[in-house]
Amino acid sequence: xxxxxxxxxxxxxxxxxxxxxxxxxxxxxxxxxxxxxxxxxxxxxxxxxxxxxxxxxxxxxxxxxxxxxxxxxxxxxxxxxxxxxxxxxxxxxxxxxxxxxxxxxxxxxxxxxxxxxxxxxxxxxxxxxxxxxxxxxxxxxxxxxxxxxxxxxxxxxxxxxxxxxxxxxxxxxxxxxxxxxxxxxxxxxxxxxxxxxxxxxxxxxxxxxxxxxxxxxxxx
Length: 220
Fold this sequence. Notes:
11-stranded antiparallel β-sheet, protein transport, lipoprotein, cell outer membrane
């Protein structure tokens, strides 16, 4: 496991999960009229097309992960560009950090910051699961965190909110619930997602969205 299983770490993880849970209430999906549903689906298609054209983006925020018996939390910085993506996570309690780098063309992943040195593999999610014991849907997360369906993850079902934005996305066995900012523009980005599959749970609060800038990755 990337982060140690000390009592202090377990307590901190539980506290962080509780704090993230209390940061916002996920609104229930709305029952839309057929006309509203059609408009929401059209808006989602247009939104996905527009945001996928924006290949260079980044976020900084907080993440908590659990699998029913173990958990961890920390700061997350995600950098996406044409070459692939890099995810840096740091845990203030244990002063540990790691970085996952994924090549956009091949999908080949490299995980650094582990005892025993870096690990590599062709499947980023599997690499994380083998190294940490956590089920983190990292391959699809770059789409889900922006309120998009993940093209490589099969069919998806979307429930929309009154502003015609995703309230929930169900895909690849995961249920992703969204909290949005007060900005109701079509291309607004979520402030929080809560993803669940079985005992696996990933909560991410975005403190800042930005463009692709490598200068401060993992430095927060």
